[in-house]
Design brief:
This protein is an alpha+beta fold. It contains 2 helices and 3 strands, in the order βαββα. About 30% of the residues lie in helices and about 30% in strands. The chain has a 3-stranded antiparallel beta sheet with strand order 1-3-2.
Amino acid sequence: MGTRSEAGEWIVARVGYSRTEKSIDALLGCIRAKRHAVTRAGARNCSLQRKLQTPPLWTATFGTPTWITFFV
């Protein structure tokens, strides 16, 4: 019997951010570094969405086989 991640059950981590237009470049740099770290630790399907109705709100999402990846 395999582990949960081998069975296809992944944890989906979703993190919300609120940023002004002036700090978007800094946010994107942080997200890029976080994406690099979590993908090296096994995360998949990373995405970054911006709400069109409320532009300061951003959501980063990724799938991870364990909670350890989330805390990288």
